[in-house]
Write a structure and sequence with these properties.
By secondary structure, the chain is α+β, with helices and mostly antiparallel strands. Helix content is 42%, strand content 10%. Among the domains are: 56-147, Cytochrome c-like domain (Cytochrome Bc1 Complex, Chain D, domain 2, Orthogonal Bundle); 162-205 and 263-280; 210-253. It has 12 helices and 5 strands. Strand 3 (232-237) and strand 4 form a beta hairpin. Helix 8 crosses helix 12.
């Protein structure tokens, strides 16, 4: 056999082998073949709710919270406020311990044993069920505060009744506000429904806060509040100097200009806010 023939035979054999391999790998799969399903699973739409969005724990047990409300108000409200937003004691709505708690496992021991170093007594008279109910009431206050920030706004309001908003304003807001005074042109200042709704639900305040500190010996000092938390309070006195106290050792009185708005937060319904927004947008 000549050299040329040998080369042609080798090339032909290589082409046949390549074709066979391609046939093996590229042949169609039979309909009844048992091949693993490698299809990409369909993506599901993300769920938008307060717990996913804000990282909260399980939804509160509303039945238990209702039972816990009178127990909380009898034993806890004096220090922590009727809605757990703080008074003489810390604000529980923003408490890290409360946010980490799910079913009373974190809150329960604190109620049962107290915190003597912070002035909180032990409530040994409360049963485990009562403590669970109190914990659920506190969680409900967190839920009410959190959900207020989950409205979906648009630049065009399509809901709300102007006349109902006017009635709601007269019954709820007119004690502090006037459509002929501070709110006379609010519709011009906040022409977008989203901005108006946010202003209604949670208006902001500007400038330094004033406070009065009463010391253990009864001395009262009034000035600008520089720092205030559960541990330290710092006040700038009118003379220009500053004084700092351990917060548990003094009484700090901070006038709350937004107290009325805070009280309304858990009471508003969606219709209330939409009706009021619609009405206030007519004040131009």
């Amino acid at each position: 056999m000549s050299k040329t023939s040998t080369i042609l035979l080798s090339a032909t054999s290589l082409l046949c082998l390549t074709a066979a391999l391609c046939y093996i790998h590229l042949k169609p799969v039979l309909a009844n073949a048992q091949e693993p399903d490698q299809q990409t699973p369909a993506r599901t739409a993300p769920t938008r709710n307060s717990h996913d969005f804000l990282g909260l724990g399980p939804a509160p047990d509303t039945a238990a919270a209702k039972l816990g409300e009178p127990i909380y108000k009898e034993n806890c409200a004096t220090c922590h406020g009727p809605s757990a937003r703080g008074a003489q004691g810390p604000n529980l709505v923003r408490s890290v311990l409360v946010l980490h708690d799910e079913k009373g496992e974190e809150i329960g021991p604190v109620i049962k044993n107290g915190r003597p170093q912070g002035g909180m007594p032990a409530f040994t008279n409360l049963s485990d069920t009562q403590i669970y109910d109190i914990a659920e009431y506190i969680h409900l206050q967190v839920e009410l505060a959190a959900n207020r920030g989950l409205y979906t706004h648009s630049n065009t309001i399509i809901s709300g009744d102007t006349e109902k908003g006017k009635v709601f304003f007269a019954a709820t807001c007119a004690t502090c506000h006037s459509v002929a005074g501070d709110l006379a042109t609010i519709g011009t200042r906040y022409p977008q429904p989203a901005a108006m709704l946010a202003r209604i639900a949670w208006p902001s305040t500007h400038g330094p806060r004033q406070a009065t500190v009463t010391t253990n010996n009864g001395k009262k000092l009034t000035g600008t509040l520089i720092h205030y938390d559960d541990f330290e309070t710092t006040l700038r006195i009118d003379a220009g100097g500053t004084s700092t106290w351990s917060t548990p050792t003094v009484t700090v009185d901070i006038p709350d200009k937004l107290g009325g708005h805070r009280a309304l937060l858990p009471k508003y319904t969606d219709d209330d806010l939409h009706n009021l927004t619609r009405y206030l947008m007519t004040l131009k």
